[in-house]
Amino acid sequence: MTKLTQWLWGLALLGSAWAALTMGALGLELPFPCQEVLWPLPAYLLVSAGCYALGTVGYRVATFHDCEDAARELQSQILEARADLARRGLRF
Amino acid sequence: QATGTDQVVGFGLVAVSLIIFTYYTTWVILLPFIDSQHVIHKYFLPRAYAVLIPLATGLLLLLFVGKLCVHTLALGVHLPRSSLAPTLPGVFLFLLKGYKQKAL
User: What GO biological process terms does the UniProt entry carry, in alphabetical order (chain B) (predicted)?
Assistant: First the structure.
């Protein structure tokens, strides 16, 4: 089974469990606050996943170490390549 | 060591995500268990908005991503070629090859 099918199966199972609970198909009498928490749950999970992604990206951007030497070397190599290609006739 | 702007932007993103997460968690998870007469309910919109606002934002984001894709593709159209139509069979065959290899 591929990763995609695994994800889809998981989503289908959790989704049907959520749908069954929210629409009272199982005949359980959940306390009202629990019902109130249950129906926005998919939206909540999506928003939390989005926040986690945003936070992780932000943290990694903030803690990424700059490599001054490698940056300078890369810039000089770019200039070299541009000059070489321009000499061979490629127009930028 | 990361440079100044990177740190500002990075930690700014972390702060924004934490703020959104705590506010939204309080709204969705905690408020139903707090007595409806409590003053804290004043700071939160009616519950339906807890689903509508993320939904609307998600659709807007999709719209912008789509616009960006169209814009980026349109940039490449001004090539020495009469139109994109002749390339379509090639694109289709390429995709087909990809799917055939995946099935194997």
Answer: dolichol phosphate mannose biosynthetic process; GPI anchor biosynthetic process
For A21-34, the pLDDT digits (tens) are: 888 877 788 888 88
Distance from the Cα of A84 to chain B's closest Cα (Å) equals 24
* Nearest CB neighbour to B6, from listed A43, A52, A64: A64
User: Is residue A84 predicted with pLDDT exceeding 70?
Assistant: yes
Q: Is the pTM of this model over 0.80?
A: no
Nearest Cβ partner for B21 among A33, A48, A60: A48
Which residues, 6+ apart, have CB-to-CB distance to B32 below 8 Å?
A32, A33, A34, A36, A37
Rounded to the nearest angstrom, the minimum Cα separation between A15 and chain B is: 16
Which residues in chain B (72-101) have CB-CB distances under 8 A to chain A? none
Domain ranges in chain A? 1-27, 31-91
Q: What is the ipTM of this complex?
A: 0.73
Reported as a single tens digit per residue, the pLDDT across B50-91 is 999 999 999 999 999 999 999 998 887 766 666 666 677 777
